Amino acid sequence: MTSFSDQRPPRLLVVRNDKLGDFMLAWPALAALKAATPRPHVSVLVPDYTASMAHACPWVDEVIIDPGDKAGREGRRELLARLKAERFDALLTLFSTPRIGWLGWRASIPLRLAPATKWAQLFYNRRITQRRSRSEKPEYAYNLELAEALLEALGIAVPPRPTPPYWPLSADERARQREAVAVATGLDDDRPWLFLHPGSGGSAVNLTPEAYARLAVDVDARLREAGQAPAWVITAGPGESDNADALCETLDSAGLEARRLPPSPGLEVFARRLAAADLFIAGSTGPLHVAACLNRATAGFYPSRRSATPLRWQTCNAEDRRLAFCPPEGAHEADMAAIDLAAAAKAIAERLTSPSTSETRP
After folding, report:
1. What is the number of structural domains in the chain?
2. Are strands 279-283 and 231-234 parallel, antiparallel or unpaired?
3. SS3 325
4. Residue 64, strand partner residues
5. 41 and 112 in one domain?
6. For residue range 122-147, what is the model confidence (pLDDT) as tens digits?
7. Within its chain, how far is the Cα of 16 from the centroid?
8. Rounded CA gap, 343 and 326, in Å?
């Protein structure tokens, strides 16, 4: 086994090459790797879509773009040559696919570790049984276990687990984001700002816009009664602007102070804007997990099927800063209309008036 030192740190390649939320839930594992001694050089293989977030991650030294399953022969050849040239000591695949397993094997990476799932595990020489389909732990905890197993396999002491925020921004940076949102929306900075993201990116069962409107009206009334009249910032992803605009108009017609956050020039800029939120409300989608990495207070709405439970896709912010709601026992797993919106509104209002939330306002 290679002897590592500060002069010869381990070179690691971490793969999470799917959606934004999945990648954000890898940040605790990346933080754990960078906390090791000697401090590894960490590269990530990600699709172009999440590359800007990978560049923003403080736990990443190098970003390699994965051209994906549909890349032509030349693209596959170039990626393989790049991985060979990097001379990685270890490959950590957080979500295993045959193509990536084969790529790591062809690149002659000495240690290749992945979950023991599907036939893709044949390409790995270190496999960890996790049984993720049982959804017994949060996704980020499964990722942490894999990162720790990799360090152990390399003969490196496992450091104490990192704690939120996994995307730490300075107070000055958060204040700049608050100012940018104020300029973009015309909102005053003297009230709680509740960000509401009604879209799902096409990947998650979510509340309807009408349900989000009822929730917002209820939360708003409760906060006004408590003397904290809020403002609502409605956000949207690509292709979601029409629904977001319609929701904003609905809230405005109901007497709420609501503004649309204008489109941002890129994913990273949008992600940083979320640092301005006092609380972020969404389905189990990428922006919810971005807000959690920033350790903003979150309220997530989930289906109750085993593969998508609030536990499995739990946000990685501090425990006292996250709320989760799903259909009750006895309802269909995807029946989001069965969620008790009045109870959710009550919990959100109480969370916004709690010291753990208000004291960390940007």
Report:
1. 2
2. unpaired
3. strand
4. 45
5. yes
6. 899 999 999 888 889 999 999 999 99
7. 12
8. 12
